[in-house]
Amino acid sequence: MNICIVGKGSIGSRHASIYKKLGCKVYFLRRKRKFLRNKIKNEIYNIKDLSKKKIDLYCICNPTSLHLNVLKKFIHLGKNIFIEKPLVSNLKQLIRLKKYFYKFKINLFNGYMFRFDPRIKDIKKTISKYKNNEIRYANFVWQTYLPSWHPWEDYRTSYASKKSLGGGVLLTCSHEIDIAIFLFGEVDKVFCVKTDSSLDNDVENSVIIILKHKNGIVSNLTIDFSSKHERKRKFEIILKNKIIKWDFNSKYYESNTKTKKRINTRKSSNIDKIYLYQNLDILNKIRKGVREKNFGKMSHTEKVIFTAKKSLIKKKFTRTI
């Protein structure tokens, strides 16, 4: 297959590397040639050049606020479009994307790759055997430090630090919100509050969120990209008779009852593998002609994000948009 990628940052380059290993031909769409010292092999510089190629999948991996403008250029050239999470940066854009989705019958893929983590898929299968009232609650924690992500640059200039580019911890670090939705289903109400941060930018850097799922389960989330002294990423599900634990840095997940039990999945679970499983799934769906036809289901995580932003202002539980 031929893959076109917009955005040659770390995430765009990661997707390119994976698709090349899968035997795909990868093209990068670049708007301005003059900023490149050397022409990159197979690089395309404008939509006119792109229209001459038979592109099977367009991958939008530039800053979140620009996703919709790029998608508008592609919808007349092809229907298979992947957008790195989150789909868009505000509710107005989400409403416009919904119109494009149904009008042009886009085969849209969203970049929440942790749904393909074998450990998390196993946990989802395990908890599906329990009744909702047997699951007491779940705790999610992601503490990271934005300035350490790209130490070669000033974090204040990155898209994650700029409101105008779709930055902020709610949009940039929304994976945990999506994992909670993947495990426990759609969310009915959201409460969100900011916590203090020493970072110098115009976005929310640390939040605590409570999600009330439609099935009655409650998820508590701490998402913080201003955590200078401690980095961790894990969640635990509290059931009446056990605790199930996932840690990003462990190849196992744990099920704790009277004895501590480590469960190893059949598939490898490192971050490169998780992205690989996601991209393989996308290619397989394209080959089989499988298309998600329910935009509401696909975009529910974004709706929860924008509801959390609304809750920050209202300072109370807010029904999901």
Search tags:
321 residues; 15 strands; six-stranded parallel sheet; globular; alpha/beta; 31% helix
Give a structural overview.
There is one protein chain. With 321 residues, this protein is of the alpha/beta class. Helices cover 31% and strands 25% of the residues. It contains 10 helices and 15 strands. The protein has a 9-stranded mixed β-sheet with strand order 14-13-12-11-7-10-9-8-15. A 6-stranded parallel β-sheet has the order 3-2-1-4-5-6, sandwiched between helices. Strand 12 (243-247) and strand 13 (252-256) form a beta hairpin. Helix 5 (118-127) packs parallel to helix 7 (175-184). The longest helix has 18 residues, at 271-288. The chain is globular, with a radius of gyration of 20 Å. Residues 34-38 have low confidence and may be disordered.
H and E string = EHEEHEHEHEHEHHEEEEEEEHHHE
Distance between the termini: 37 Å
Rough outline: globular
Helix content: 25-40%
How large, in whole angstroms, is the Cα Rg?
20 Å
Work out the strand percent. 25-35%
Strand order of the largest sheet: 14-13-12-11-7-10-9-8-15
In short:
With 321 residues, the chain is an alpha/beta fold. The chain has helices at residues 10-21, 47-50, 67-74, 91-103, 118-127, 169-172, 175-184, 271-288, 295-298, 300-314; strands spanning 2-6, 25-29, 43-44, 57-60, 80-83, 107-110, 135-143, 187-194, 206-213, 218-224, 232-239, 243-247, 252-256, 260-264, 318-319. Strands 14-13-12-11-7-10-9-8-15 form a nine-stranded mixed β-sheet.
